């Protein structure tokens, strides 16, 4: 009931992260273009296959952006849909199944809901069947004015690759055409698809060689990441050509890992080191990139190494737009803030702080990677458990039905 929500609100208020005053409102009035990058992991950034860069475009782009190099995905069985849920709501997904299927009727106070209330035109863009992951239902609750799904794109055998359909380059190209028609300011969440298992690519789209290991999946992965990187390059250019770029912020994040532990042997060969549980935890890093034309471009970017995760995206972006999130039901915080706890909690109760990595029921030193005294991790274990429980309670009880602050506090300052 609503008293349960009060306890949770207290916890959230106590852990509230004040915005960084210099960053607050920096992107006020801008369009927000949020791009979910399928299956990209941070280990491909500034890395190569047989001497060839895997992400030449992103390697340059991060110099013109805020690049968060200690940012983690926090997804579980809900994969892409979990990342969408976490990013939009600053809440955790569920430990089993996908919120998108199990609780699509819940009341939410998502980033899209809030931006829509602020007068933004909100949408999601993804060239897949609209009911995949139950998106057509869940997107209503998240607050998108429109979902541009497969039916809205011109998909042909020439611009597709099975099994996933439309290739990223064409997806971006046709999406920009749609953006040109959107009322501004707009918020759109785009989801790429080509860099998805089984990582199949047409010959003409292969820009670097495959890797050579016992895993075909692992070998092909680099070529599809490289393709996505090229598609992003063309996309940004197109935004510039169409005059959308200047008045927008472009935010990229990885949805979840692409290479599972089934490919540890190949990964080991590539990294040149054993994939221990500690290394595996590190491999869950995904890129998070905030590009603000006129602010971060022309080499004015920086690398921010705060330990953070997808849960932090919503408060971070809303603060950039100049929307105060105090009083919101949220478990993340503004990554630009000095008050950010420098911690990320995963769905299974493991976590990473500046000092500790708790994974596989073992407490490691984040510095040395060696197992340490378990009691050092205990205080954080409790915090992690509590936070996950609170998030679950909100979902299971549909508690945002009782959330009242929302209507009072909406204002761009
Ligand atoms: C499908 C795409 C991929 O629409 O989002 O989903 P995933 O398998 O990565 O969860
Ligand atoms: Mn995905």
Automatic annotation (TrEMBL):
<feature type="domain" description="Sulfatase N-terminal">
    <location>
        <begin position="30"/>
        <end position="323"/>
    </location>
</feature>
<comment type="similarity">
    <text>Belongs to the LTA synthase family.</text>
</comment>
<dbReference type="GO" id="GO:0016740">
    <property type="term" value="F:transferase activity"/>
</dbReference>
<keyword id="KW-0472">Membrane</keyword>
<keyword id="KW-0812">Transmembrane</keyword>
<keyword id="KW-1133">Transmembrane helix</keyword>
<keyword id="KW-1003">Cell membrane</keyword>
<keyword id="KW-0808">Transferase</keyword>
<protein>
    <submittedName>
        <fullName>LTA synthase family protein</fullName>
        <ecNumber>2.7.8.-</ecNumber>
    </submittedName>
</protein>
């Amino acid at each position: 009931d609503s008293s349960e929500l009060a306890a949770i609100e207290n916890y959230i208020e106590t852990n509230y992260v004040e915005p960084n005053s210099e960053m607050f409102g920096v992107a006020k009035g801008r369009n927000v273009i949020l791009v979910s990058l399928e299956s990209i992991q941070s280990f491909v950034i500034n890395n190569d296959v047989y001497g060839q860069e895997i992400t030449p475009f992103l390697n340059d782009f991060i110099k013109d952006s805020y690049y968060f190099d200690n940012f983690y995905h926090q997804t579980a069985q809900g994969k892409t849909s979990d990342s969408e849920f976490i990013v939009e709501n600053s809440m955790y997904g569920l430990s089993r199944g996908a919120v998108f299927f199990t609780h699509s009727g819940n009341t939410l106070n998502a980033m899209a809901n809030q931006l829509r209330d602020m007068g933004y035109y909100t949408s999601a863009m993804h060239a897949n069947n609209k009911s995949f992951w139950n998106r057509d239902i869940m997107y209503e609750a998240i607050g998108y004015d429109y979902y541009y799904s497969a039916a809205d794109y011109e998909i042909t055998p020439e611009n597709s690759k099975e099994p996933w359909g439309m290739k990223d380059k064409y997806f971006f190209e046709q999406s920009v055409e749609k953006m040109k028609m959107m009322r501004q300011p707009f918020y759109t969440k785009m989801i790429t698809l080509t860099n998805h298992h089984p990582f199949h690519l047409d010959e003409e789209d292969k820009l670097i060689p495959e890797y050579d290991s016992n895993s075909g999946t692992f070998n092909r992965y680099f070529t599809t990441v490289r393709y996505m990187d090229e598609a992003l390059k063309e996309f940004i250019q197109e935004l510039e050509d169409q005059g959308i770029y200047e008045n927008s912020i472009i935010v990229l994040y990885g949805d979840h890992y692409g290479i599972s532990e089934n490919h540890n042997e190949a990964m080991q060969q590539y990294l040149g080191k054993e994939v221990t549980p500690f290394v595996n935890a590190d491999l869950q890093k995904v890129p998070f990139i905030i590009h603000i034309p006129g602010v971060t471009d022309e080499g004015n970017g920086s690398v921010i190494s705060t330990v953070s995760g997808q849960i932090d995206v919503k408060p971070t972006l809303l603060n950039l737009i100049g929307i105060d999130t105090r009083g919101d039901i949220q478990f993340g915080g503004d990554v630009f803030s000095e008050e950010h706890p420098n911690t990320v909690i995963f769905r299974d109760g493991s976590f990473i702080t500046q000092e500790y990595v708790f994974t596989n029921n073992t407490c490691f030193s984040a510095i040395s990677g060696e197992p340490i005294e378990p009691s050092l991790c205990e205080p954080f274990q409790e915090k992690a458990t509590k936070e996950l429980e609170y998030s679950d309670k909100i979902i299971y009880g549909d508690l945002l039905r009782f959330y009242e602050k929302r209507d009072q506090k909406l204002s761009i300052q």
